[in-house]
Specification:
This protein has 8 helices and 2 strands. It is mainly α. Helix 2 runs parallel beside helix 7. It is 74% helix and 3% strand.
């Protein structure tokens, strides 16, 4: 739904699909940058990297598994099940997993020669991109990554619409997974300044996106859909 010139309008299917691909591109691009910079990825991406390190399986596989598990949890948290939306969320998650892996592979050789400061700037920019991309897809209210949907549901169900608190509640589980992997392997990968920035401020990035990017788009409580 969007608000324009004092009136409320439902998004058309074409508009929803457009915002879907805009968001998918921004979020995947940001995740790919943060992983390739190796100075701290978003917590869920970092957990997938650490699971891959422990099991020697592809990171993309764990990104996909996380998306599917989050989609299942979402089904238990909403008041009524929208199967079309749930399946769409899983499709988004699988496409996201593929795109992130491709972006990370593309950016890694480009970022590897850079010194610390440029890498850090790129990493933080990537994290910021993830936040504003999440803001757009949540408000477009079409389909979104199951983990972002989980954040959105928690935001309205438990935290009175607070984006920072909803995001923090989501990230706690991702950090726990990475800590378990660290205990098993002795290595903690894709954690750094970017991860800390994402953990504490990603909710604020989402809130910034709500106010400044496609400002006419409105949030709808996802637990009521």
């Amino acid at each position: 739904m969007y608000y324009l010139n004092g009136e409320y309008f439902e998004l058309t299917l074409k508009q929803k699909i457009t915002y879907f691909f805009i968001s998918l591109a921004i979020i995947s691009f940001g995740n790919g940058l943060s992983i390739a910079a190796q100075l701290g990825a978003a917590p869920w991406s970092a957990s997938a990297v650490n699971l891959a390190n422990v099991t020697h399986l592809p990171t993309m596989l764990f990104l996909a598994i996380e998306a599917i598990l989050a989609a299942v949890i979402n089904l238990f948290m909403v008041e009524k099940i929208n199967w079309r939306r749930a399946i769409g969320n899983v499709i988004f998650g699988l496409l996201f997993s593929l795109f992130v892996a491709e972006f990370a592979n593309l950016f890694h050789p480009l970022l590897a020669p850079l010194s610390l400061i440029p890498k850090l700037i790129v990493d933080l920019f990537g994290i910021w991109c993830i936040g504003i991309g999440i803001s757009v897809i949540q408000r477009a209210n079409f389909v979104l990554h199951p983990l972002d949907n989980l954040t959105n549901v928690a935001r309205f169900k438990f935290f009175r619409g607070s984006a920072p608190l909803g995001q923090l509640s989501n990230f706690i589980f991702a950090v726990t997974i990475s800590l378990i992997c660290w205990a098993l392997s002795g290595k903690l990968m894709s954690y750094g300044i970017g991860t800390i920035y994402c953990f504490f401020l990603q909710g604020n990035n989402i809130a910034w996106g709500d106010k400044h990017l496609f400002k006419h788009l409105l949030h709808i409580d996802p637990t009521k859909i």
